[in-house]
Amino acid sequence: MTKLANYVCGxxxxxxxxxxxxxxxxxxxxxxxxxxxxxxxxxxxxFARSRGHVALSELSYAQRAELLGKIADTLAANRAEYFRISxxxxxxxxxxxxxxxxxxxxxxxxxxxxxxxxxxxxxxREGARAPxxxxxxxxxxxxxxxxxxxxxxxxxxxxxAWGWCEKAAPALLSGVPVVVKPATxxxxxxxxxxxxxxxxxxxxxxxxxxxxxxxxxLLDAAGEEDVISFTxxxxxxxxxxxxxxxxxxxVRVNAEADSINSTILGPDAAPGTPVFDLLVKExxxxxxxxxxxxxxxxxxxxxxxVQFRAxxxxxxxxxxxxxxxxxxxxxxxxxxxxxxxxxxxxFAGIAELRKECxxxxxxxxxxxxxxxxxxxxxxxxPTLLACENAAAAxxxxxxxxxxxxxxxxxxxxxxxxxxxxxxGLGSLVASVFSADADFLRALTLGISGLHGRIVAVDPSVGAxxxxxxxxxxxxxxxxxxxxxxxxELAALRALLFYHRRFVVQGPPSLLDSMAERxxxxxxxxx
Length: 526
Fold this sequence. Notes:
Distance between the termini: 50 Å
Number of domains: 2
Strand order of the largest sheet: 15-16-17-14-13-18-19
Mean pLDDT: 97
Helix content: 25-40%
CATH architecture of the largest domain: 3-Layer(aba) Sandwich
Shape: globular
Strand content: 15-25%
Oligomer: single chain
Radius of gyration: 24 Å
Number of helices: 14
CATH superfamily of the largest domain: Aldehyde Dehydrogenase, Chain A, domain 1
């Protein structure tokens, strides 16, 4: 059985011991194993900080942007193999694999193009110079310098391709070496992509490392100049932030955690109107793409009480057309969740929701699936629940089923819709479908404090919107509260996480010489 090697200190190292299995979620077949046992993680970080940081810091932003372009080309050339691995290890349909793999390549290409605007600079200068003396002999400038440590990425299982690329692109562009720790259950694809980048000889030694298996003492080895970017559960995000070494060294942490995201239908959107149909389409898409295993997926569907039954019937009718099963079958539109434990978690969550919600569609563990053994596979049926009394409910605002499940919720007026959406206590995204400009504005302002991204769709937008669950590199990704309190992407603004701000007070001649190495930080907002 193949064991995924780790790439540390410029070498491929196989972990000791039996390792943890990676399986095919359709057939139950073991595909590979992963282990970091015996790997010197502190040495790996030290190598990244010394060799990787030094080599990258000798390059300008524009030169590092060229490296990203080469990475994108390498990944694009191996697209077919990544789709194959996605099918085997994640049970991905072609649209599922495209969402992950093509999203990864696009993000790399985006930052490669955007980074060229920073030119030959190696630092950023921020704001106007501040005079500190009457004669002007003593002044101050603020600068942003890439961190001298490593960027540690701890990623979730659902995006083994895009998950590391969306973090690595701004980090490498900043000149910061990356240490990738993918979720073990789907680490094969990440490891293969990193392997292809290493084999292509694009990056200098130490610029990229990967650990396949347990993180072990990774957090213990983090230093004050390192940064940690995490994607996963709110519970694990709290554990990382509260880690003794992370606290003691004030290690910078960005977290993107689970989220009870909402989509909201305006009171003007009756059945048959364009926005009603667009919402129904988007709900079904978000429930079934990647089997609902997206941190941005729709979990609550808020509709005016008068349209509750019509919305329930319309969504259920579309879900009934979705064939679930082995993605190798061309008729299949939705595959499995990734593991048996994730399947059990989904059914447990649905059971919690059923205590205060009715089932409109799905929910039966014994549902029909195409070309798959129920005992070996990890399928969860698309499940739509109903909650007509949101004020009295609690689980629907707190329990996230990380799979193909959503709850339809009735609301009464814009204030009620705002209150229900905010009960998620911090979400990555909400979408609003309405032709009423006043409703769109009031709802957006009402929920903006607890949502990182808001997608507003009216008839003029139509099918041109990028989608409720689509994260694009030019826009902010993250959310407050339960969603982790982090911010990723947002175009070149993403570089800020990988830079340290400092001020130099001194003679103008010194400040002038430093400014010669800098690009204006305003370029990050262009």
